[in-house]
Design goal:
Blueprint lengths: L2 H19 L21 E2 L24 E11 L10 E5 L10 E2 L10 E6 L4 E2 L7 E2 L2 H5 L8 E10 L19 E5 L2
Antiparallel strand pairs: 1-2, 2-8, 3-7, 3-9, 4-5, 5-6, 5-8
């Protein structure tokens, strides 16, 4: 092989990698984004939208302290809720009627009915102050971590008779106690 050919081959070999490493234009890739905008996908289950909770009758002298008596469990179920990463819709209570100084619900007409109160409680029996509407309650399935999309979500609560904190030493009077509370289910 002649010397000129050999020098030409070596020069080409040395120049080739630098030419191949130089891109011919901009390089890049694709980034995909995936999201969902939901106002509220939940539907309140049949019968749970507007319902009446019937409490057992109680003798007025049994309602004599800040401890609830004749407590009744109840639940509100929703379905078709979108839940991702255990971020479930929360239930919020609001109350437009009469409440005492601890947030217990009073009979809607202060001139008739019993002067007893009703206390709304969470599933563990913790009292809910109806003067405050900012506390959200999570459904039980999410708390236990066993929710599958499409199943119903259940919000569990309790309600019972209680002596109004505003009665001091007065006795609870007999009579009806009628009141209501409103709720919303929303994502926060």
């Amino acid at each position: 092989m002649n010397k000129i050919t050999l020098i030409s081959l070596i020069a080409c070999a040395l120049a080739a990698p630098s030419v191949m490493a130089e891109p011919s234009g901009p390089v890049g890739g694709v980034i995909k984004f995936d999201g969902l905008v939901v106002a509220n996908s939940c539907i309140i289950d049949n019968g749970d939208e507007d319902k009446t909770i019937k409490l057992a009758h109680v003798i007025n002298t049994e309602i004599n302290s800040d401890d609830a008596v004749k407590v009744k469990d109840f639940s509100i179920k929703v379905k078709n809720c979108y839940v991702a990463n255990n971020a479930a819709p929360e239930l919020y209570w609001s109350y437009a009627g009469r409440v005492d100084s601890k947030g217990y619900m009073l009979h809607r007409d202060e001139n008739s009915g019993s002067n007893a109160a009703l206390v709304l409680m969470n599933s563990s029996g913790g009292k809910i102050d109806m003067r405050k509407s900012g506390e959200g309650f999570t459904p039980g399935e999410i708390n236990r971590g066993n929710y599958s999309h499409g199943e119903k979500l259940t919000y569990n609560f309790k309600v019972g008779y209680i002596k109004s904190s505003d009665l001091s030493n007065d006795l609870v009077t007999p009579g009806p106690i009628l009141t209501q509370a409103n709720y919303t289910v929303q994502y926060k």
